[in-house]
Amino acid sequence: MAFENIDGVKIASVETEQVFLVGDTFTVFEGENPIPSIYNWADLKSVGESKTEFSFETADSRVYKIGFHLIPDISRRLRLRAIIEGNLAKHPSVEYRHLKRILMNKTNYTSCDAPSRAFVSKGVYNEKEISYSNVTLLNTRLGKIFILTGILITISVFLFCFFFIGDFMENYKYFIPISTFCGVIISMFIYIACAIMAKFIYATLLKADSALDREITFTVAEDGFSAIETELHTGYDLVRWADVAYFVETNYVFIIYKDQKSVFWLPKRLFSKERQREISDFIATRLNQK
Amino acid sequence: MGVVVNTTFMSVGEREFYLVDVKGSQGYIGVTPVTPSATENFGNTLHELFYIADEPIINIIKNNKNDPFADKLLSQVGSIHNCSMSLRGVLGAARDSYSTNPQGLIKSAQPVLELLRDGLYVVHASKMIPTDGAGNFFWNAYSMRHEVYGTGDYNSVIGRESNYNACFLIPSCASSEFNETNVRPYLDKIRTGNQVGGVAIQLCGMFSVLLSGHSAATASIMNDTDFRCILIEPVRDILFDETGRDTNPEKQPVPVALSCPFVKIPIEVVPEDMLTGFLLRRHDKKASNYDTLKAKLKSGRGTARRALPQEIYDKSEALPDCKMLESTHIIQSLSDEQISALLSGETALDGETIISPNYYNSVAIACNYLQYVDFEKFLEFALAIIGSPDLAAVHKYVLERLAGIMNSKIYRYFKALRENPMVDSQEVMPIVSDYIARYDGIADQFQRESYSFNNKKNSKAGPTSISKMEDFIRRKNRSN
Questions:
Q1: Which of B87, B169, B209, B437 ranks highest by number of CB atoms within 10 Å?
Q2: B31 with B60: CB under 8 angstroms?
Q3: A121 falls in which pLDDT band (50, 70, 90)?
Q4: Is the pTM of this model over 0.80?
Q5: What are the per-10-residue average pLDDT scores of chain B (480 residues)?
Q6: Residue B434 backbone class (left: φ over 0; alpha: ψ -120 to 50; beta: rest)
Q7: Amino acid B471: pLDDT
């Protein structure tokens, strides 16, 4: 389990007359009853985080909800999330639902000794590097498809012109540049649409993940790596290298993948050029990646 | 803001204690989880460390972290002697204050409570047994790492819901610090009718770490007097009522009490602020000086084992062990009729279960209980079990229990058994033969040494007494 150094969070709801204590257990005081309902995390059926609340469903199908309006302080909300995820790491049978995030789910972290040597830096993600990197990844995945699409559109327009517009022998000088121009323009429109979508995805992530505009402490060490909100960072929680698969380097970020999904984004601007090369080599070594 | 210690006196059943909530402490004394470094892999092992200030004291390892009944491997890796004089002074003052005025328990304990990690504690006075739960004097019993019976978070014999005393001791001071000069004042105090005591904190299962009072404990055992301590027990667990979960796994267990070995405190009587603090506190929080402690632990200094006066070993051996005390939680008395029923292979008498529906458990617990309350009856019972071929299932346990006791009656019985085996040889005879060989070897040595002594002194010493020989044999058996 990780994030055990974070103290528990108490949340009181006047409207439902409930007091929640979230720590090593999930506890609910209801009304005037001095005896709370205390749930071990293994006794929960599911936990969820939406845009507006945390929800907890117990094995006997009771559902408790903690609205974000009860935790206006973002730091407390992030602490609560870290406690929940740290506990759920020990109980993978409990279903956990949350919106898409940049920062990796804390259930992936394990508690270990603070690394003796590590690349460490702090910073805040910015839109440009995330969007650009999203687009870069898009290009990497879909670049050939864009080119193929462009060629197909060019050929389609050319054929259309050939069959339906004028005499080919007289007009071929025009058909070729027109079809090429159409192919390029339409492909560009598709590309721009994808870029706008990538930006939209980032904005959606920002709204959904209150951690994304916080200062993050990034660590890359022999034992593993981490990207944790600075206010929650102790140095004792890392993701092991054995738990991830490979990494990709763009102009702006290093991205580490697990199960075909990106889990760790490390902004390059936080390190000098020389350090960036060292980090690239270091990660490649840890992941046995050439 | 400094440390805040809230105390409330409580009484649950017949047990009286102080419930103490410590907040805002620097955490000089406590247990920290130990996590692996890049080069380590703990697998399924749970690793913890009891520390005082920057000194790791007791290394605690549990091989199966998911088994709440598993015993732990303990080893002493440091000494409080390496801590600051001021901290030791606080503990010593608490010890002396309690010894002088046992009624002022909580006042004496207050300075010690301020040194503890944030948490909820039960504080009471307790009679301690200064051994390692297996008949060895506690002070030099933990220099080598080994599994200690009775250290499980829960005791499978006693059960989760019963109260028990964490009365066996683990030292916080290296045995190399033993000095007879330090023990003498306590001997004098005891002989003049004054009390000596100590301060201890429960660590795991039936075991507590003695923070202060090592020389006092030594003096108590040498004088055959009780050794009483301020005992501080961390409240770590919640006791749930799981009735009905067998048939309906979705049924929510109901919390009933906060649990420590000494007492199970019903939730409804716990003050709300203390309950809230307990539920919010993270029990696996690393110590603030964890990096320092881990570095010292890895450097592997350990503690040197020092030999102590023979008298201490002899008296320790005579004290009850873990299994004996466990049995007293199951049995309050055992009548002759019940013993006869057990010897007949029965687990019930007049329709009532004597000890347990399981015969093996019944005999094991009966042996332990009788050994605690009536040694002669225990011998009769045990030897009768061995002599009965129908009870072969329990022979091994009973033999192992007897094999640790050098006694002429056992020796004669085993010799007769070897000459006229009545029971299955495979399991019994090797243990019997080994016992006889050990006994003979040590008895010969005793005879030689007595003869040599008598010749040298040219004394008119009378025939060697059996009790002297048996004392000698017991000592030699232990040292071998």
A1: B169
A2: yes
A3: very high
A4: yes
A5: 92 95 95 87 90 96 91 95 94 94 92 96 97 93 93 90 94 92 93 92 97 96 94 95 79 90 96 95 93 90 73 87 91 90 90 90 91 91 87 86 85 85 70 87 75 51 53 60
A6: alpha
A7: 65
The amino acid that residue A45 corresponds to is K
Residue appearing with tokens 């995390």: A41
Distance to chain B for A195, nearest Cα, Å: 40
Q: Dihedral through CA B198, CA B201, CA B202, CA B203, nearest 10?
A: -120
Q: Which residues of A touch B285 (CB under 8 A)?
A: 4-5, 7
Least confident window among A56-60, A119-123, B341-345, B445-449: B445-449
Tell me if B280 and A9 make a contact (CB, 8 A cut-off). yes
Strand ranges across the sheet with B254-259? B237-241, B254-259, B264-266
Segment holding B23, helix H or strand E: strand B15-23
Q: In this structure, what DSSP letter does residue A115 have? A: P
CA pair distance B66, B64, nearest whole angstrom? 5
Q: Which of A209, A213, A249, A243 is nearest to A226 (CA)?
A: A243
C-alpha–C-alpha distance, residues B260 and B283, integer Å: 14
In terms of phi and psi (left: phi > 0; alpha: psi -120 to 50; beta: otherwise), the region of B224 is left
**Where are the alpha helices (H) located in B83-179, listed in sequence order?**
85-100, 105-113
How near does any CA of chain A get to the CA of B105, in Å?
A: 30
Please tell me the distance from the alpha carbon of residue B36 to that of residue A111, in angstroms, as a whole number: 8
Question: Which pLDDT does position A250 carry in this prediction?
Answer: 86
Interface residues of chain A, partner chain B, Cβ below 8 Å: 1, 4-10, 21, 23-25, 27, 34-39, 43, 58-62, 111-116, 221-223, 234, 236
Identity (one letter) of the amino acid at B50?
F
